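Submission sheet (multi-component)
Chains listed below:
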Amino acid sequence: KNFVGWGADGKAIISILGHRNATQRTQIREAYHNLFQEDLIKRLESELSGDFERAMYRWIWEPAEREALLANLALKSADKNYQVIVEISCVLSPEELFVVRRAYHNRYKRSLEEDVAANTTGHLGRARLVSSFRYGGSEINAKLAESEADALHEAIKNKNKGNGEIIRILTTRSKTQLVATFNRYRDDHGIAITKKLSDEGSDEFHKAANLAISCINDHKKYYEKVLRNAMESVGTDEEALTRVIVTRAEKDLKEIKEVYYKRNNVHLEHAVAKETSGDYKKFLLTLMGKED
Amino acid sequence: MAFNQELEAITQAFSGHGVDEKSLVTILGKWDPQERESFRKNTPHSFIEDHERHFQRCDDHYVRLLKHEFVRFKNAVVLWTMHPWERDARLVKEALKKGPSAYGVLVEVACTRSSEELLGARKAYHSLFDHSIEEDVASHIHGIERKLLVALVSAYRYEGSKVKDDTAKSEAKILSNAIKNVHKKPINEDDEVIRILATRSKLHLQAVYKHYKEISGKNLDEDLDDLRFKETVQCLCTPQIYFSKVLNAALRIDVDKNTKKSLTRVIVTRADIDIKDIKAEYHNLYEVSLPQKVEEVARGNYKDFLLNLIARG
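Outcome: structure written.
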């Protein structure tokens, strides 16, 4: 809480904020406001720049507010990055998703689903995803998994006509039930459902459905892929890199790191250190647990 | 009391919503076998004369009716003492089981509850039935109403005061065009209409309602032919009118089982919310007071219980 006169000392900002949990960061924001009569976030925005600023801006919020912010930014972005919407809807638990929806109300004075629905044309699939409040139990109905694996198979074959069924199953069933259904699909039809979907088409709908399935099935594997792609691409995708590390740092980044190491035989920290620089790099490494 | 008066009192005790327990206890309780036989002979639609074997047997309908009417008070008590979340979860489950004629209840629960109340109902549904409301609604309903109903039960509407009036105006136009083109594209297939009705805040929709009236001269719900869409708009924009209409349909002597049940449902679910406003609107629409109508049509403990609930607020 001793900020007086720190100016834009990146190292100090990282060492203080990078090591605080959500409650502490909120307390710091409050204390800062009481001391200096200004919003710490606005101050950071004006003092920092580039990737570091963007990363710090996302980090400082509480998790639910952060996800709401990311969702809103995604909806406003020119390329309409729906990936974030699908991630939020499918990776978070049903309760966490509701807290995000509440945070969205408070911040944007509209509901998340109304913004998602108004910003996407055609299917209300994504609106259905963000509106879901899945049953969170671990029961599996094996017969249902079988019939819905078949229903999905038929629906995928039916092209556009089948989209309604795909949306119904993917947006309403519990995650445990869905994982059982995806496994059953592979057993019965000899191909992973994601592979079948991408074989059938690469339009918005198929991409979103695949994304949802990957997130529900194994989100750590999904995030590993996002990180890998973010760093493999020509000119690192800092947006994706920041998003994964900042949103998972307080959750399961450690496990994602393990998945990354298993897949790539290189520690995530090393990969990130190679692809990034300066305060941005230091900040990401701090979030990953590496002391500077 | 002369026997004829007693006969009339007992007939009255059995005709209406609920039964007049007091009369049954005092009058029936004192009747001797001849008086009871006289009662049976004088109530031909409840007791069928078997001329061959010389006795009067109960009509099946009468037996069923008695079952429902005696239990009406108990059902009201159970519904009233339940947590509102469980209440709504069970109402939804029951409606799904009953089928399309009961889907209006789904609209009612989804659209007249606050966002937090609907969330609570969804939580309770998880707890009671090990499924989410939306998964059951989506898998049980196969007809054209599915899209709208799933969207409605999934809503978590913004409840603040901020409304963008130009958006409301343009959405009123979208609705107006959709309604004009209903012969080309049925309203249940219009994603834009569903989007507006299922995601916008209630305040926003009330602004849309107002702009629609300015554009077309009619009320939005009047211009919607599809019953569920009509109910949706009524529940979201003019809930007290909607509830008054439901009550009015229920407050008749000869009415079907499901319609009769809505009397308990509306009064129990609104007693703590807006029963006072519903009373006022009812009086406005039908020029008779709600308590008076209940007094006419309901009986016994059930009647007293309802009157008590109506008197709140």
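Remark: The CA atoms of residues 187 and 266 of chain B lie 28 Å apart.
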